[in-house]
Each structure stands twice: as structure tokens, then as C-alpha cells.
Amino acid sequence: MVARSWATSPGRLSIIAGGLVVLILLTGIAAGATAKYKSDTTTDLVEIHEPTAADVQRLYRALSEADATAASSLLAAGDEPIELRRRYENDIALAGPTLGIAALDRAGDPRIIKQIEIIGRQVPTYAGLVETARTNSRQELPIGGAYLRQASHLMRTQILPAAERLYRIQLERVAAERNSAISFPYIATALAVILLIALIMAQVQIRRLSKRRLNVGLVVATVAIALGVAWSAVAMTAHARLVGEGYEHGSSQVNMLADARITALQARADELLTLVARGNGAAYEVEFSQLARTLAGEGGHGGGTLRQASAAIADDEMAADLRKAIGAAERWLNTHAEVRAYDDGGKYEEAVQLAIDTRRAGSSAVEFAALDDHLGKAIASGRQYFVNETVGGARALALLTMGLAVLALIAVAGVVSGVRQRLREYR
Q1: Crossing angle of helices 143-154 and 110-138, rounded to 10°
Q2: Mind listing the pLDDT tens digit for each residue in 6-50?
Q3: Which of 320, 332, 359, 416 is least crowded, fewest Cβ atoms below 10 Å from its Cβ?
Q4: CA 12 to chain centre
Q5: Using CA atoms, how far apart are residues 265 and 254, in angstroms rounded to an integer?
Q6: Residue 121 CB contacts under 8 Å (≥ 6 apart), including other chains
Q7: Pick from 106, 123, 214, 216: which is nearest to 167 by CA?
Q8: CA torsion sign, 208 to 214 to 219 to 222?
Q9: d(CA 350, CA 422)
Q10: Do the Cβ atoms of 146 and 276 come closer than 8 Å?
Q11: What is the CA angle 106-110-113, rounded to 5?
């Protein structure tokens, strides 16, 4: 039947018109669906997946801080500041809600379920050991330090590794969503190219049949499709560039700084546990030295995670906070050397005071707090940079779906009008 229709000029025109309309609709649907998918994926990236990753990172950091705070509280003994107690309790309390959020975002992922089970089961055990250590310490029983070291061992060998795995899994989700959002639209592009070729070939065919140079309807359809292709190319290129920029100079830097913050907290716990061990903490000091090199480079004055992050940061506010963090890290490491000098020289009480006194200018506690605070601000700036750039990318696609639908309808109307005009000549 199609062959019979193609044998006549009116039939050929009808087949051309029908084929073009179907191809226009397919291309419009594919392009519109692609634009909507990219827009929705980008929105979910900003509103769900990245915030969930940040929450899990916050849990990882809170658990590390709890370990350091527990050690500091034990060293303070009867003079334990109320703010230390509240900070520890808040850090431990953060586990429940965060694990619930992570479970919702990756429901059904067995890897997530496994890590949540480990953290949910071991955090209460850890908290019990810390309370036992605190009780014994108040009674001035030396076994309190042993309980605290047991709690810290549990935190470092089971809870923190599980929290880190949970964080890495969530980062995989963020990276996968980002890649999906900026992926090249192969199907829509292929259909658009085929459609443009088909429109040009249709005009050539109709010109041969009608002996007329141009068909206004087909010209309008071609212009509409070309405009849609150009609009899509500009919008999706801008979207991919902004989302990529947000990740490269925002999210990826946040990940590096989050790692640095955790490293610093673990080193702080080692610094305090060395004192808790009272002469038996050589292993903690060895680990402190390793973590310090990772954080600030050899001797605390070059290289390390902090300076690596600093070299790749584009945001001015983030860079300023990181410079302050680097300065605080150097001062903290210098103060740590003084703490070790006091302790190794038999001045244990002086070493403890220099390590935990939050009211003493230049103490290890004060300098570490400054480091943690500036890292926190740099991370917040990096997250905001990521959000700003990614939201800008989403805005580039804001009207694209509706615009493509309108242009597709204009193209269909142009094809129908142009071919109908030619068909009337055969009546």
C-alpha cells in the first residue's frame, strides 16, 4: 500500500508529511525527556544526594570528635567542663538520625544496610565503655584509662571504618548522579540530526515534484528544529559546565577537606590518648606523627592534604578559610611538640593542662579548635559553591522542556501546512 501511494505525487507528499511528523514528535519527546531528566537529576543532586553525603560526613566527623572529646574529658577528671560533656553527648546522639537519612537515600543497598548495622550496634557499646571509664576516673581508679583505650579501639577499628565506608558509598552516589546529569544526550542528538537531514531531503523532493524553489512550511519547520537544536546545545553545554565546575572546585574539594578534618580529629585523639596512657602511649604518638604528616606534610610546613586542597581551590572565601586552617594546624603541631616535651620531661600535669585547657591562649585545645573551626567554614563555603554552580546549571535547563515542545508543535504545523499547500495543487 505504501509502495502504491509512493507511485503518485500526492501519495508521496502524504508519506513524506506523515514520516516527518512522526520523526518530529519522536525527537521532541526524546529531547524534552532528556532535558527534564537532566533537570530533575540535578535538582535531586542538590536537594537530596549531596546533603545526605554531607550528613554522613558530619556523622563521621562527630564520631571522631566524640573519641577525642572523651579522652579530653577523662584527662580533665573532676574538672570536666560541661561543654565537653554536652559536645560528646551531641556527637553520639547524631548517629541515629543520620543513619536513618542514609538508609532512606539508598534503600535496598546491602552495603548501606551492613554499615548501618555495624554503627548502630557498636555505638551503644562504645558509649557504655566511655561511661565506665568516666566512672572509674572520678573514683581515681587507673583502670578508667584502660576502659577508654578499649572504647577508642572499638571506635577506630569498627565504628569509624563503617562510617567511612558509608560516606564513600554516598560519595559514589553523588558522583554517579553528577555523571548522569552531565552525560551526552546521544539518542536525542541522533534523532535531531536525522530529522534535520530528513527535512532537507523532503524539501529537495518536494521541489522536484512542485518545481518550486522553497516550501515556506518546511522552511519554518527546519528553522524551528534548528533553533531547538541550538538552544539545547547551548543550555546543556552550560549545564554540564556549571555542574562540572561545582563538583571540581566545590564538592571534590569538600571531600578532601572533610578527609583532612577527620585526620586532624584522629590525630587530636591520639595526642590525648598518649597522655591518658601515662607512659604507655608510644603507639598513639607514632600514629599521631603519621596523621600529622598526612595532614600538614613533613614537619607541618609543606605538602599534606591541606596544601593540596589549597592549590586547587577557586572560591576566594573558601581559600581564605583554608589559609587560616593551615596556620592553625602549624601552631597546633608546634604546641603538640611542647606538650610532648613536658610529658617526656616528667611534667605530666603541665602537659595535660597545655593539651586540654580551652582558656589558655596558645594551648593545644585552643589551636586545634581554631583548625577545626576554619576547616568547618571552608567546607561550608565549598558546599555553598557547589550548590550555587549546580543550581545555576539547573536554571540553564529551566525552560528547555517547554520550549522544545513548542518548537516541535511549530515544526509539525509547518510540515502539515507546507505539504497541504502542495496537495491542493493536485485537486
Answers
A1: 170
A2: 556 666 777 888 888 899 999 999 999 999 999 999 988 888 888
A3: 359
A4: 55
A5: 16
A6: none
A7: 106
A8: positive
A9: 99
A10: no
A11: 70
Q: In this predicted structure, what is the pLDDT of residue 332?
A: 93
Cell of 44: 535531586
C-alpha closest to that of 21 among 225, 288, 244, 290? 225
* Count: domains in the chain: 1
pLDDT tens for residues 291-332? 998 888 776 555 688 888 777 777 788 888 888 998 999 999
Q: Whose grid coordinates read 537519612?
A: 101
Per the CB < 8 A criterion, the answer to whether 300 and 333 are in contact is: yes
Instruction: Work out the pLDDT band at 128, boundaries 50, 70, 90.
Output: very high
Q: Residue 316 to residues 311, 313, 321, 382, 387: CA-CA distances in angstroms?
A: 12, 8, 9, 10, 16
| Separation of alpha carbons 258 and 266, rounded Å | 12
Which residues 6+ apart lie within 8 Å of 146 measured at CB?
133
pLDDT averaged over every residue in the chain: 84
Q: What radius of gyration, in Å, describes the C-alpha atoms of the chain? A: 32
According to DSSP, residue 357 is labeled -
